[in-house]
Specification:
alpha/beta, Rossmann fold, 15 helices, about 50% helix
Length: about 375
């Protein structure tokens, strides 16, 4: 039995494009964001609407390759392609864009993207274990605050920041509660439905409505699970997907994992738990800007070196979700994730005791059969063990 609420989530992205345009017509400002490091609390406190701009589709990539090299990460090319072809309604609607230096390819692409929209690049520290990393990132937050105030012609005060912190924390907790329903065995929600639900929320401009929809979906899934109903048979291999972010349009690995007999029960990547594990401290005695900066620096992304937080989180998720195997997905030319994959492989082997496979691919369908062969063999091995 598939949750009825999924029909709403499937239509949400298209519906929200109209909502964003209606909001602009009524005087609201829209701020586009490419990454989990972009602090939506500042956008909300500025009275603007934060929307996701990360490109996850193959269609605009050929247009991007007229300017960008072909041997570049498909996420970067897709994001740039949407801009140059003017085919993303959210980029078109954006009055201001927040970018970040998570990789060399992105930060150079942003130099070109600045020709199309007012854009501010946040410079991440190289590592979070260095003395002064938090102060560095706090200064970057304050620079962004100044740019938002200047460009949107607003004043961001502490009261609005604290309200935005509480709203964002509620959204994160609601999403985490949704993901955690798949701790049940067998999982009550497919990996594809989970991906659809958590991906489209980045395009939902009404946060309160979005939280309500997530909570309704979670409750419906719990009710279905309470009846002993699942799309998977007992004993279906349970998969943790880690690595690069996945969205609708580039979900081929998720589909293949489940078509070949697995159950994707958890996303560790930016699509999933990684961005939800940590909340902003709501202590009103603290400087809210410092609390926001502290929270975002906890995101265990491969662009940070060293990145022990990712390994710790994987260990926790393997245990919490009763994982049988770890699939590490890297987009082609995403060097930070591809190189870090060796550390993940060793960690999963030596500390988690479950099988591991790394898959490197792009957004196209050219390698579907090759991926299917490797994934089928991996699932067969999990079934055998």
């Amino acid at each position: 039995m598939r949750p009825q609420m999924m029909k709403i989530f499937e239509n949400m992205r298209a519906d929200n494009a109209l909502t964003v345009q209606n909001a602009k017509d009524n005087g609201f400002k829209v701020v586009g964001m490419f990454c989990a490091f972009s602090p939506q609390e500042l956008v909300l406190a500025a009275g603007a609407l934060p929307v996701s701009l990360c490109g996850t589709r193959q269609e605009p990539i050929p247009a991007a390759e007229k300017t960008l090299p072909r041997n570049l990460c498909p996420l970067i090319k897709s994001s740039f392609g949407f801009a140059v072809t003017d085919t993303c309604p959210y980029f078109r609607a954006s009055d201001f864009v927040i970018a970040e230096t998570t990789c060399d390819g992105k930060k150079k692409m942003f130099e070109l993207l600045a020709q199309y929209k007012p854009l501010h690049v946040m410079h991440l520290p190289q590592g979070t274990d260095r003395s002064g990393a938090l102060q560095w990132w706090l200064e970057e937050m304050n620079l962004l605050k100044e740019r938002l105030e200047e460009h949107l012609e607003v004043t961001i005060n502490q009261e609005d920041l604290r309200a935005a912190i509480k709203l964002s924390n509620r959204e994160r907790q609601a999403l985490k509660n949704l993901l955690e329903v798949n701790r049940l065995d067998p999982a009550p929600l497919t990996g594809m439905d989970m991906l659809t639900a958590i991906w489209v929320r980045g395009f939902n401009v009404d946060k309160e409505e979005g939280i309500g929809l997530i909570e309704q979906l979670t409750e419906e899934i719990r009710n279905i699970a309470g009846q002993g109903i699942s799309p998977f048979a007992k004993g279906t291999p349970r998969i943790l997907l880690t690595g690069c972010p996945v969205g609708t349009g580039c979900e081929k690995v998720v589909r293949l994992l489940e078509e070949c007999g697995g159950s994707v029960v958890c996303y560790e990547n930016c699509t999933g738990i990684k961005t939800l594990e940590y909340l902003v401290d709501e202590d009103e005695q603290r400087d809210p800007m410092e609390a926001i900066a502290e929270r975002y620096l906890q995101i265990p992304c491969s662009c940070i070196s060293p990145n022990p937080g990712r390994l710790e989180l994987i260990s926790k998720l393997v245990a919490d979700y009763q994982v049988d195997g770890v699939v590490d997905l890297s987009w082609q030319a995403c060097h930070t994730y591809i190189v870090e994959g060796e550390l993940v492989r060793r960690h999963v082997r030596d500390n988690c005791g479950v099988p591991y496979i790394q898959l490197e691919t792009d957004y196209s369908t050219s390698d579907i059969e090759q991926l299917k062969t490797r994934i089928s063999a991996f699932i067969e091995m999990l079934n055998g063990s």
